[in-house]
Design a protein that fits this description.
CATH architecture: 3-Layer(aba) Sandwich
Largest sheet: 7 strands, parallel
Order of helices and strands: EHEEHEHEHEEHHEHEHH
Number of helices: 9
Strand content: 5-15%
Radius of gyration: 19 Å
Shape: globular
CATH superfamily: NAD(P)-binding Rossmann-like Domain
Distance between the termini: 33 Å
Length: 290
């Protein structure tokens, strides 16, 4: 396995590739000379179209569909070197007591199950090429918080999956890495943290400089760089890196503080009051994706 992965002539597959971070990543992979399979639940009419792009409308929660996406990618481009497991959804704020089980299950199915599905579907092809897989986790995977347990739990699961995959791939001549992003400046993040009153209150709990937003284009640039250099982990914005390494020390302190913070207590109570008037969701939940 070469330490650097050449992108010119390589074949990549990006889940959640039609919008946000995924779409920006597809653009940068194409600019670097790769061919790209774009996997997304909904492919917009204005999605990029060219000979080096394969548009695949599929749901990452469907394991058979992910196998089919990999097969179609190999059929069109002849190989698969790179996978970026980026697809994810964000639930509305709720406590663990009040979150709708269908919503919790949907977040886990996409954010963790979807990553597992594409990893399992693509692993043999990537190993055969000595390639690289990036799993997009989140700084929420290792940060104490409230009101967003489904997202936090799902991203923590992705982190552990990525750690195991990295060790196992090293034994068979391939590589895997994790990407941890803070708040990425996408339409979904703005809608959740700026336009939603409860989301705005939760966002205000994150102190400067950890609340600095990362442009989607910058996140995409870092993802492509992590593929080229086979990085084990990418953490951005960079101010999150010390927290990542010191989490074992900092988290107990932060948890202690949050349990005694009046602002947090009021926010949790308001979330639970609002849940009393919220109608239950159907078993089929379709949440917005970044």
């Amino acid at each position: 396995m070469k330490r650097q992965l050449a992108l010119t002539g390589a074949v990549a597959l990006v889940t959640g590739g039609a919008r946000g971070i995924g779409a920006a990543t597809v653009q940068k992979l194409l600019a670097a000379g790769a061919s790209v399979a774009v996997v997304d639940r909904d492919i917009p009419a204005d999605a990029i179209k060219c000979d080096r792009v394969l548009l695949l409308a599929a749901d990452v929660t469907d394991s058979a569909a992910m196998v089919a996406c990999v097969a179609r990618t190999v059929e069109k481009f002849g190989a698969l070197d790179i996978v970026i497991a980026n697809a994810g959804i964000t639930p509305p704020p709720a406590t663990i007591r009040t979150v709708d089980k269908n919503i919790f299950d949907a977040v886990m199915a996409v954010n963790f199950g979807g990553v597992l599905n594409i990893v399992r579907a693509s692993a043999d092809e990537v190993v055969a090429r000595g390639g690289h897989i990036v799993l997009v986790s989140s700084c929420a995977a290792f940060t104490p918080g409230m009101g967003g347990a489904p997202y936090m739990v799902s991203k923590a699961a992705v982190e552990q999956l990525g750690r195991a995959l990295s060790i196992e791939f090293a034994a068979v001549g391939a590589s895997a890495g994790l990407a941890y992003f803070g708040v990425v400046d996408t339409d979904l993040a703005r809608g959740t943290l700026d336009n939603d009153p409860v989301g705005r209150r939760i966002g205000e709990l994150l102190p400067w400089p950890l609340n600095r937003r990362l442009p989607a284009d910058r996140a995409a640039e870092l993802l492509v760089r992590s593929v080229r250099t086979r990085r084990a982990r990418t953490i951005a914005p960079a101010v999150w890196a010390p927290y990542f390494w010191l989490r074992g020390i900092l988290n107990p302190v932060l948890e202690w503080k949050l349990t005694r913070d009046r602002t947090v207590t009021e926010l949790i109570r308001d979330l639970e009051k609002s849940a009393e008037h919220r109608p239950p969701t159907s078993r089929s939940v379709k949440l917005p994706r970044p």
